[in-house]
Amino acid sequence: MTVTTKTLIAAISMMATANAQTVSVPKFGWLLASESGVSTPVFDRENRVVSSVYETDPAGSGVPAGGTLSTPDFQQTPSSVVSDGLSHVRVTLINAATDLPGNTATWEAWVFISDVTATPSRGVFGTYEQRTGAAILVNTATQRFRVLAGNGTTNFASDIGPVLVANTWYHVVVTFDGTVAESSRVQTYVNGAAAGTLGFPHTSFTYTSSNSAFLIGAFEFSSPNVNSGGNERSLPAGSRMSCVLVYETVMDFAEVGVHFAGGEACVASFPPHVPAKFGWHFDDAAGITTALVDTLSVIASTVHETDTFAGNPAASTPTFAASPDSVNFVDGLSYIRATITGAATHLPSTRGSWEAWVNLGSVDGTQGDRGVIGTYQSGVGFALRVTDEFEIISAIDNGIGGFTTTKVTFGPTLVANTWYHVVVTFNGAATATERFQTYVNGVSTGSVNANGVSITNVGLLNNEVTLGAFTFSGTTMNQVKGDGSEIARSLSAGSRMTCVLIYDVTLAATDVGRKHATGNTCLGSFDIASTNAPTASPTSSPTDSPTTSSPTTSPTGSPTTSSPTTAPTGSPTTSSPTISPTGSPTT
Hints:
By secondary structure, the protein is mostly beta strands. It is about 5% helix and about 35% strand.
């Protein structure tokens, strides 16, 4: 399929900024490309994957462990792993009964099928053994996709979607919602179009220890017997897969359409990542002592402190909270201090962005300027603060040997005990009135004038980056300014932060919307391939998030085809068949 970058960005932006609840974050995800390989999933949010191995199993051998380890073959455009007719990826989970999604789920894949007539049926992905689990197959008897599921005693199977065409890329998605009526629990999609609503007489999928092997590009009734005869086979030789994703949530029609529009390179399922220059994520596993992102290795230290009103900083033990994982500033005097060597050089100057998720324990504009993130000391630098609104204070180089101070509030009146996603960007090349752009909860809250093209950061004054507090000078915090006019304060008692990031690029509105949409676990802000990525599932979005409904039409377009280049024929099946119980799977 051919989709312009502009179309994709528009589709992702529409979904991300319109309704935060429509962006699904996978629990497991494999991007089957040469650069990422197959051995490490891109998504494994709870570290439940024991191993992902590529193996080839000679037909009829029934080799123990499922096959012989093999070196995968990759092709480009898009990057994808190629089957030799006997190969596949075997994923071993710690405990499939609890690791795989139960009463709500989405399964998604992009697959290129070289031969839709080769018998017997071939597996796309899933785990189905001893009548438990779920899988998606290519039913070569009907040349259509087949959904297979079981409750431990009975098999349920149904064909979905159009008649398949060989040498064609297909996007297939199956969702399950055990909370709705039996007749509509399974929704299926092929190439962004509805492919059938299926009945399933159980409110959750059933898995046992037999399902610990999750197969990509193959199917087996009993482990480990792929390609050992009968109906257990890998995809035909020359078939390709570019990605597989498993979700614990139910993807809706609009989001399926966006993922299809992103194409077989899976760029909508694995969105382009804008890397931060510095980034901190706060939980009891990652702690606060090590920055998650430090591209230049210039962060000398990150420490948690408590500073009395007398201005006496002391190292302190941080307190953490869950749902989402975050640091809890329990006493109203604590904060985090990061020391950056050469901050005057490394902090944003002519362009940059600052991002944070913050939840305020209380909101009282009379209690002084409480800091979220910043390096503003002795009148130079940049800081993001809160009173009863968010506030920027920054020293802007005026181009004649001095600087002017920009100080302005933005965004809604803040509500205590509510999560906010706040982003400020700066672009010195923009017109003066648009150099600062501000965003709260993924939505633009306006631009701020800056009478200069760069932010002034001077020597040691700005080496101390404070997170969760604001300071007027050096090491002191929570004190009255010398002239008595203002109070520099930590965030109020009970306030929480999940992540803070500093970029040396100007984030676009689409970037901000996507980051907000993935939730306050910050999965949209940190590199999704990071082994230290946050592990909690996104919680509900703040109460003042945008509530505009999501788009209801799916993107159009035909699947990209290799030689031959014939497009798929037939229309998607849109009727609502009920999966019929069968004594044994018909594959």
